[in-house]
Amino acid sequence: MIYRVARDRIGLPRREATIAGALLGVLVLYTEFFGIDTFAIFLVTAGIYLLPWPLGFSMVIVPAVFADEKVAIVFALWLTLRCACSAKDRREYWRQWLAAIAAIVVYGLALLIVHLHGNEYQLKPSGYLTTLINNLHASISGRGLLLNAWPVALLSVVGAFGWRLGGRSLAGTLFRPIDLLVIPGLVVVALVLTQLFQTGRIVVHSAPLFVVPAAVSVGRWMDAASSMKQP
């Protein structure tokens, strides 16, 4: 799916599109690989592919909360950033942004009505500070560094690298450097609304936003290395 995003939406050559797929395949390993996370990341990628079509995008994102609420969270953060910082994006994506917000509302209503087991605390703001403190404490343990800090750091490096070596040429497409702010945004959401060792895998759900610029940068780096070897 990310290969198709790179080819159809950005117009990248097959080499860079394949690199994007390989990068996403590696990053997915930092999620619950045998659980629902892989499907959720597929839905995020599908949402990116469908972003130019508000109706198609909405038909994927709103029902997606019944599979995994993190799909809506990623898009709500991403599109809020884009619409807040760019008049052009507001004109193009305001309907998609409303769909992402609607999906969050649907998820909240589902929590209230269905009382999803284990998620009740997400609707109790009085417990957010305690959850945050517990998560920060867990994150400085060996397991926390492996499951929380390392995936966030790795994705941040991939994202920064993507906009360092030529990724800026994509600024007029679906992707922009401001997308990097989704990473700290998801860190905050994870620390406040999840428990213990969930931060890393939740942040990795935004990986489809960063692997395409990173693939462009890898391609530029490969071309530069090849030209240096020529006599």
Q: How would you describe what is shown here?
A:
With about 230 residues, the protein is mainly alpha-helical. The protein has one domain (about 1-230). The chain has helices spanning about 1-10, 15-25, 35-50, 55-65, 70-85, 85-115, 130-140, 140-160, 180-195, 200-205, 210-230. The relative contact order is 0.16. The mean pLDDT is about 90.
Structural class: mainly alpha
Number of strands: 0
Shape: globular
Biggest beta sheet attributes: none
- List segments where confidence is low: pLDDT < 50 over at least 5 consecutive residues: none
The overall average pLDDT, rounded, is 88
Helix content: over 70%
Q: Report the sheet-strand fraction.
A: under 5%
First-residue to last-residue Cα separation: 39 Å
Assembly state of the chains shown = single chain
Total number of domains: 1
- Count the DSSP helices: 11
Kindly provide the radius of gyration, computed on alpha-carbon positions and rounded to a whole number of angstroms.
Answer: 18 Å
Query: What is the ordering of alpha helices and beta strands?
Result: HHHHHHHHHHH
